[in-house]
């Protein structure tokens, strides 16, 4: 199962606008994408509520994973967003 560790780059963490953008991208993938804070339980990345309950703050490391055909590309797409300061856009 492909997975990638990435640091949350948005100054507000995965809350509000960044969470919505990440959830939208995750939900658009052909496989289910999961995200977890380092050492925590993974949750569905396609849900804004799940992302917000992670309480992933700026600078926190998260693990993004997926399984199935297209999982590697799905993990990369979501990881790229998490590693971008989405508040600056």
From TrEMBL:
Keywords: Cytoplasm, Phosphotransferase system. It is found in: Cytoplasm. General (non sugar-specific) component of the phosphoenolpyruvate-dependent sugar phosphotransferase system (sugar PTS). This major carbohydrate active-transport system catalyzes the phosphorylation of incoming sugar substrates concomitantly with their translocation across the cell membrane. The phosphoryl group from phosphoenolpyruvate (PEP) is transferred to the phosphoryl carrier protein HPr by enzyme I. Phospho-HPr then transfers it to the PTS EIIA domain. This is Phosphocarrier protein HPr. Its main location: cytoplasm. Gene3D superfamilies: HPr-like. PANTHER family: PHOSPHOCARRIER PROTEIN HPR, PHOSPHOCARRIER PROTEIN NPR. Signal peptide: none annotated. Pfam families: PTS-HPr. It comes from Amycolatopsis halotolerans. Residues 1-89 form the HPr domain.
